[in-house]
């Protein structure tokens, strides 16, 4: 199994307990989406490494 596949997926961005600006919302959303894609890439690599179907 690839070492990258063993890495823990990133936690969602911690949001402050206040209203966010549009820029803060967009930034947090982008970070979470990027982390989700990275995690899915690692998961798929692990599945391929053990010969499973995706």
Descriptive notes:
- The two termini are 15 Å apart.
- The model has no long low-confidence stretch (mean pLDDT 89).
- The protein contains one helix and no strands.
- The longest helix is centred in the middle third of the chain and has 28 residues, at 22-49.
- The chain is mostly helical and 54 residues long.
Could you write a compact summary of the structure shown?
This protein has 1 helix and no strands. It is mostly helical and 54 residues long.
Q: What is the count of helical runs?
A: 1
What general form does the structure show? elongated
Low-pLDDT sequence parts: none
Helical percent range?
A: 40-55%
- Got a strand count? 0
- Average predicted local confidence, pLDDT: 89
Oligomer: single chain
Features:
single chain; 54 residues; mainly alpha; elongated
Walk me through the topology:
Elements: H1 22-49
């Amino acid at each position: 199994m690839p070492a990258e596949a063993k890495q823990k997926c990133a936690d969602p961005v911690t949001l402050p307990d206040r209203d966010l600006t549009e820029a803060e919302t967009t930034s947090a959303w982008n970070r979470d989406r990027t982390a989700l894609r990275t995690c899915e890439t690692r998961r798929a690599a692990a599945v391929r490494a053990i010969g499973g179907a995706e």
